[in-house]
Amino acid sequence: SDISSVKIEDETSFGAVFAWPFDNSRQGELLVSSSNASFTQNGASAPTDINVTYIHLGGNVPLTSGSFPLLLSGGIGATVLSPDDAQYDSETKPSGNLGLSTKVVISENLNFVLGGRVYATLFSDDGRLLCNETDCSISVSGDLWLQGEVYTGISLTF
Questions:
Q1: Rounded mean pLDDT, 6-16
Q2: Exposed end of the chain (fewer CB within 10 Å): N or C?
């Protein structure tokens, strides 16, 4: 049977953003974010979970300044979908992200960061996942898969 909905497990996702000055107010960014997803329909799960990893190149620009500056971030790159079960092939799809964040200064080189991002992964009309040499367990009928995340972290400047 076709699997029609995606459930993100209640596990922590991990990520890192490496930023560098682009000009006086903007920064370039390399973002890597990873989480696990399980696909379910009517309580039945897919044969394996999938690790979803985003690798994006982009940047950020300040929208406001002050004690809690608001930053707009975005980037493009790839989504790597890696099944936990080695019998299935990994898939790489084009994707992008858009996010908002703020930071609280702890010291000159240390900030607390709070934000959120929306990721969009593109699929072709005949997109398939969890494929091995003989068949595929999931067919994707849409063109776009959206996933959101809220995150906290520490930024270190050096």
A1: 71
A2: C
Q: Are strands 110-122 and 127-131 parallel, antiparallel or unpaired?
A: unpaired
**From CA 133, how far away is CA 112, in angstroms rounded?**
47
> How many CA atoms within 13 Å lie on the side-chain side of 16?
2
CA torsion 29-97-78-27 (nearest 10°) is -10
Residue 65, pLDDT > 60, answer: yes
Is the Cβ–Cβ distance between 96 and 79 less than 8 Å?
A: no
Amino acid at 54: Y
Distance CA(32)–CA(54), nearest Å, equals 6
**What are the tens digits of pLDDT across the range 82-106?**
888 788 788 899 999 999 999 999 9
Please tell me the pTM assigned to this model. Answer: 0.83
Are 38 and 44 in contact by the 8 Å Cβ rule? The answer is no
Structural element, H or E, at residue 132: none
Q: Where are the alpha helices (DSSP H) in the chain?
A: none
3-state SS, residue 15:
strand
Which among 53, 50, 40, 140 is positioned nearest to 95, based on CA atoms? 53
* pLDDT greater than 90 at residue 143: no
Question: Cβ distance 60 to 100 under 8 Å?
Answer: no
